[in-house]
Amino acid sequence: MPSKSLHIQISPDAHALERRAASELRQYVRQLFGFTPSVSEVRRKAGRTIVLGTGESSPGPGRKTRLGKEGYAIRCDDGTSLEICGGSPIAVLWAAYELIEQWGVTFLVQGDVMPEPGTLGPFHLPQLNVVRRPVFEQRTFRIINDMLNSGILWSLNDHEKLFDQLVKLRFNTVIAATYPHQPWWHWSFRGVERTQVDLVYGFRHVIHKRSIGRDVIGRLGHYTNPDFQGAETYSERLAAGQRLMHGIIAAAHQRGLKFIMAHNFNYFPDEFQQHLARWSKKHRIPKSIMAAERYSTLGLHADTGNSEVGHLMTPLNPVYVEMVESWLTAVLETYPEIDSVLLSPAEFPPNAGGIGVCWKQLSRRHKLEPEFSLDKIKAAAAGHKVGGQPGRSVREALGAVATVRLLDLVLNEHQVVQRINPDMKVYASLMSDALLGVIPHIFDSARFEFLRVGDYTTSSVASSMDRLACARESGMSFHVTTTINDDNVGFLPQFNFSALHTTVRAMRRHGAKGYFFRQFDISEYEPMMRYLVDAAWDSRLTPRKSSERLVEKICGPASVDPMMKAFRALEKLAPQFDFVIGTGFMMPRMTLKFWEDWPYVVDYFPVWEKLIDSLGKIEPHIEAALQLSAPRGKQFVGDLLAFVRFGGLFMQTAILIRQARLRYDAAEELKTSAGRGGKFDVTAHNDEMRQSARLLASAVDRLEAATAIWAGSVRDQTDIGSLVGLNAYGLDWLRGKADEIRIYGEHWGFEI
Length: 752
Prior knowledge:
Layout: E1 7-9, H1 16-33, E2 38-40, E3 49-54, E4 72-76, E5 81-86, H2 89-102, E6 106-107, E7 112-113, E8 128-132, E9 138-144, H3 156-168, E10 173-177, E11 188-189, E12 192-193, E13 206-207, H4 214-217, E14 221-222, H5 234-254, E15 258-264, H6 270-273, H7 276-279, H8 318-334, E16 340-344, H9 355-366, H10 374-382, H11 392-413, H12 416-420, E17 425-430, E18 448-452, H13 458-463, E19 478-483, H14 497-510, E20 514-518, H15 526-535, H16 543-555, H17 560-572, H18 574-579, H19 592-595, H20 601-628, H21 634-675, H22 682-711, H23 717-746
Parallel strand pairs: 1-2, 1-3, 3-5, 9-10, 9-20, 10-15, 15-16, 16-17, 17-18, 18-19, 19-20
Antiparallel strand pairs: 4-5, 4-8, 6-7, 11-12, 13-14
Helix pairs in contact: 1-2, 3-5, 9-11, 10-11, 14-15, 15-16, 16-17, 17-20, 20-21, 21-22, 22-23
């Protein structure tokens, strides 16, 4: 039998995804083995053949097995005929990709790793007899989001490439995390029109000739999503946003991915929020038992915590309820093609008035007491931790009572979603776990599913998973947010495999339906993501086995041992990286906070020093793996080495900035003491200022080196976003401050 021959048979009524499976098999065979298989709807009597389809379109190895919609079977006993049967068209496509992996291809979120040329030998059909069913029915990947180091800068073309990889990794859903300042839909309410939208909170990110990695970034001037280039006015940005979002939804559907729109349903653009007090004047709102949030500003959101109107943001205020429903309607009418909507509340709950009344209304409508009570909820919340801030868990629980009552009004009483799209499934989330047991008593499990958030870091989510024990017997579908890396810890290494494993085991134990990825940086975390991908189909899998298998496939067996030593060492550092939360937060005050009186810097200082030393000891393991790696894996290993070196240099930068500030403060104290009548030591003052300037110059050197390392390992738009932030939020401020202190140390007190 000729080695370069293969026929792929599909059914005459094959679904588009089944035809895509045949096309993908054809393409990879051509790329790997140098010939192009034939594809037709007629079976050949001789020669190697692949027959693929669903049980209806082309009965195959699954015809006697109940596969379910997510399952598939592959059978090849004699090396000449291989049959693929899927419980649905998308499952057929997943099976085709598993077959392609048998030929030595490794699928990553970033792209494919192909086998070394000349290592495959002649074409063959692998002998397989497998049936696959997922452990978790829903596997969701998050896109869009808000910060530079998220998916907000990804173009439609970037999303299409990403979705290609997600299907290969057997995801079945994507969720677009959206924010009120973003340009996805127009809204008008009570005569007020929306007038301002932007990406990344409206922050400006100017790339100039001193920016490091500008050749990677690709252009000078304000950096934004490539599909928004040149969009300056409200109407231009809105048009660009809707064009992008509709395109993303279509691209997901073309690949068999379901699409969920995540909507901050009780958090409004500023041009509407500022009118809430005036619109609510005639309504008497009970006082709040919660203190108002402290004032803060985040770009286009002037009052991020709703400090001025938070007490009016209660389901007892008809105007507020009307706003919520109108805001949601704008989403659903702009994007009727979405499969589902996730209603998520503001990250920090407003101090809604009348929490006790809200609870009484819920309890009366759904007969919650005596099993549940407001006092029991508060007591449960007091034993929880959220975000590490004292008292936040109780505040989140009280806010959740108002949120659940609001959802009860919007979804159950007013049926806003059902009126617009009767078949749409609704998801909702809360930061508080104190109401997990209450949720199934309030919402219809046929139309409503709940996403458990839990907390921010991977370890904090894992440590509280037993709160989900109520899920299995509730009759409602619960999902879990699985944090791959947290934006608050930021771009420091977060390889907490064991915490992810704890979360996955608890999900199985408590009957969770699926997971929602929570990630910011992507390319740096392929091993973490791969564990979750594989664990969704193999209940016996451990992170160690998953990582060993991944490294061996990409780099070869010789690299496995040193890479596993590096992963284990990085995991031991995870609690310390969690402790220095905020260090790598990708926001405009990224390096400025180390100079100012950031409250955590004193406690972080010794931990940074220990982490720098520990990362230095990990580098030799990765260097050894790089030396031993097959050519195809050197980028994979090299990127990890770059990530570790970057982390050490950034923490060195933070330490140097803080040391410079201490020297500056010492110089200023000498002046202050002289002003109180003491003798002024000008020599000591000038020495302190020179030391401060030298330390800041060293900090600039470290951050420039760190940024150059990052620029050398950019793999996607998220990496580019981080590179932009390191320049705009980091180096631009730091260079300016270093120049300021140097000049001040050289010339002060002498003016004309």
